[in-house]
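Summary for the steering committee. The consortium agreed at its last meeting that each partner would contribute one worked example illustrating the joint modelling workflow. Our contribution is presented below. We chose a case with several input lines so that the handling of multiple components could be demonstrated. No manual editing was applied between input and output; the record is shown as generated.
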Amino acid sequence: MSETILKVANVSKRFGGLQALSDVGITIERGQVYGLIGPNGAGKTTFFNVLTGLYTPDSGSFELAGKPYTPTAVHEVAKAGIARTFQNIRLFPEMTALENVMVGRHVRTRSGLIGAVLRTGSFKQEEAEIKARAMELLEYVGIAKFADYKSRTLSYGDQRRLEIARALATDPKLIALDEPAAGMNATEKVQLRELIDQIRKDNRTILLIEHDVKLVMGLCDRVTVLDYGKQLSSGTPAEVQKDPKVIEAYLGTGGH
Amino acid sequence: MTQNKTGKLIVFIIAAIGLLALPILLQATGSNSWARIVDIALLYVLLALGLNIVVGYAGLLDLGYIAFFAVGAYMYGLLASPHLAENFAAIQAMFPNGLHVNIWLVMIAAAFVAGIVGMILGAPTLKLRGDYLAIITLGFGEIIRIFLLNLDRPVNITNGPKGISQIDPLTVFGFNMGQRHTLSIGDWSYTFQPVTLYYYLFLFFVILAVILSYRLQDSRIGRAWMAIREDEIAAKAMGLNTRNLKLLAFGMGATFGGMSGVLFASFQRFVSPESFSLMESVMVVAMVVLGGIGHIPGVILGALVLAGLPEVLRHVAHPLVELTGGRLGPEILRQLLIALAMVVVMLIRPKGLWPAPEHGKSLAK
Amino acid sequence: MDVLLQQIINGLVLGSMYALVALGYTMVYGIIGLINFAHGDVLMVGALTSWTIISMMMEASVGLPGWLILLLATIIAMVVCAALNFTIEKLAYRPLRNSPRLAPLITAIGMSLLLQTFAMIIWEPNPKAYPSMLSREPIEVGGAVISVTQIVILAVTAMTLAGLMYLVNKTNLGRAMRATAENPRVAALMGIKPDVVISATFIIGAMLAAIAGVMWASNYGTVQHAMGFMPGLKAFVAAVMGGIGNLAGAVVGGIALGLIESLGAGYLGQLTGGVLGSQYVDIFAFIVLALVLTLRPSGLLGERVADRA
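What follows is the complete predicted structure of the assembly.
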């Protein structure tokens, strides 16, 4: 029943004098929500960027859904099956919400120049499928009514949801969310939590970086705590919360 | 709903009639000059639509676009004029009647050559950030112009500053566009001037280009280009191969440019490096940006305004010329207008004169 | 050997002028990330303004020594260009500081065209002879020849660079400029008004360009409304070559480009067996640019662009 979606081991990354990651490894099973937490500068975003091909690690092995995974170019990551969102929300501002999600389908579709110019049968069929799936996803995240609005006009919370819809459009094996709750108020966080829960219920796998400890602890199946690039503790939220190392380094000393 | 549709249809029909009748009206003025202006304006529309793919859709600032136009124009000029035969005995021997390669063949070849040149130029440069790409493409345009200007020694390929003349006019199904043709129906007859014939040809190509542009816009490729324009990093994260997509946009734009060049050469029947200066590249960029980047009607408007208005001014500028003692001549006025347009329009309407309409403005809280 | 030395001298002189203009480009790009296409035309305005002043003074037979007239004309040109650039920045560039990136570029190109057109109207399109205000006696230097004008160009460039270095490193304004160039937001938090710094950058750049304009006119003996665009473009290439935003880089790049062009023009005919002659010299700059951007995009000395993240 459970299948390992992501298996990462021994990831290290150094930037000049700074050892951003040392020997970090996580294992995520299908249908899990996995949280990566730690104070600022702990290496969470570095790990993310290594995973999604933005940085090349000095060492590390990666396996995605049982197959070896080497992210060399950023654009190969989505194709392999990892879709991400960004901490600062990177939508396509002048494109509509629907178009944003349709771009998410690009990596799973094929029509090229000839199809576009000659409007072949297969092109038209694919376009209809892309549009339908995109609308479906907009409904799924709850912003279908804004389908024809330019994405920059959406509220912050809706933009976040749109980014998630777009990531889902790539049919990912793993969806990686970079601080999705950043800048959200309490209501928006509750809605976000419900959405992530729903995604999990639909048997998708989620990796998430977050600062909001309460959100993480309530939502995640498993959690890894990073501190100064090192893996401090891994386990269920309950286990990690009780780990004295964690309490000392993070939760205890002026945690939020 | 149907009212809107009927309204649109009526506007469309009126516009179509207007466009088809325009050259007839212009011909009635007795001189060819207005028709020529319109013809040239249509060529600029073609260029603007081509550049729109590069700048408008993919967001790549190309300041050397006119180089592809030049490639196409000179290709036709060399393959359909006496120049090569006059300067190279070998060619004279192979083609005793002179080189008169069929224009449609040249068009296909020019599309090909320009596209390849575009890709070769694009491959190393498209990864550069916007401003640098602009300068490098500018440089490329200048390099092409300088070569065209100087390749008359040691071997006379381009005839240097003198340019290539006596270029064949266009023939379509044996129909020579360089000559007048008279249409007779019963007692009534009407003579079509060459400029009028070219008008219809160029209009045909413009319509083709517009259809192509819309089809590209509303397609997977078009959306991919726009995604790159909006946020290249996010686009890559969504699995788009941005390098290949940018090359494709660049190549397509180049192809448009090359084919337009062939049409230009057959119309003007003369090409020289002067027609392909930096100023021309800048003009086409201005047309796209001032018109409304990425928005097809806006781009067409921009092209017509920047190409046509100065010419219109030329005819009404005489009082000004006298007033300023010859300092404010029509050429200067044209340049002044374009420059002012670029500065002023960017200040008051940075999105262009006719940008894509906003869907859903800021949602009420 | 004579030819080589001569070309080196010419290259250094040309390079000095490129360096002065490159500094203007690099300072502006380092602070606001804009390629000021109109910068080369500021050089032209400086040159033409000085020409007008010199002509006026000569006609009025003021009786001052040649070098003094030249100096006064240069100072007036510097003032005019500074005012001009300040106004351009304030009216045309400042409102677009947060616009989509294509807009300011178009404005800059339009501004360049505007300056050229106004110059065409004010000074009329025909090229004019620029009088030689300094002694015309050529001086022999080891088999090559150098004119007094050229010596003055080299000397003035050196002095100007020294002055600029002092300004940038030892004055409050200079510190403010460096801080804003590195991180505008933090600099603003420290109380440095970005508008003031940016205006100052444009003013200084303009003065350097005006000096370069007078030099160019004196060296080549002619002025015309279109004289500034190409040198401006090449100076930008020099700035990129040295590392955009990097002042030392602009100087190194400028001199290097001057030497490349000079030696290239001199030897191109020989190297290509007569196929390509010196009329192709203009493309060197662009080829250099292409090479730099492909092989070492951050330039010879490394770029310094504001961290606007």
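Chains A and C do not touch (no CB pair under 8 Å). Chain A has two domains: 1-81+172-256, 96-170.
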